[in-house]
């Protein structure tokens, strides 16, 4: 009877984990659209850069969903082979996303630095950009709290990582807000500076992910060669 209730709880946990991951996809899709459209219309490099960051977040969300799905499938079959294969997918996916993040971050950095050099003629950012950027902070902080509560309940490490990511996204949106406020106060360069900082943060996110993936994959290979 205890094994039945354990199975029930596992299924319940899996459902909650998937629900949290899907909520993140939905929120990020909405935020990304609003950030890119309003960022472009209200002349905010910072908001636009943060919108591109949210696009990268969608990629990360996709990875979380894939990892959850593969680990559920592997747990069902309980074979070492499936586990190895799901780990290999995770490694390949993580490396792909880290390369995308580094490239996107550098591109954002480069574009905003070139905008900074002609900031004297750039129009100042419009108020709707500020409203959206503040909304992003609130939404990402709420997402952090929700995912973290599910992560603690289901003891899912990938959800813990995903929750902390949402918290760092809230910080990135704070940078965008500072840039927009600076631009509205008459320093147009501050918005491009914020965009450059966000670009660096995106690239750093990619570098951290790549390094973590390398370390984990190396540890697994070492464990494999010593015969486990
Ligand atoms: Zn992010």
Automatic annotation (TrEMBL):
InterPro entries recorded: Cation_efflux, Cation_efflux_TM, Cation_efflux_TMD_sf, CDF_Transporter
Signal peptide annotation: none
Boundaries of every Cation efflux protein transmembrane domain copy: 23-215
GO CC, any one term: membrane
Keyword Disulfide bond carried by entry: no
Keyword Transmembrane applies: yes
GO molecular function: monoatomic cation transmembrane transporter activity
Membrane-protein topology: Multi-pass membrane protein
Keyword list, A-Z: Membrane, Transmembrane, Transmembrane helix, Transport
UniProt subcellular location: Membrane
Segments crossing the lipid bilayer: 21-43, 55-75, 95-113, 125-148, 169-187, 193-211
NCBIfam families tied to this protein: CDF (TIGR01297)
Family recorded in the similarity comment: Belongs to the cation diffusion facilitator (CDF) transporter (TC 2.A.4) family.
Protein name: Cation diffusion facilitator family transporter
Naturally occurring in which organism (per UniProt): Caballeronia sordidicola
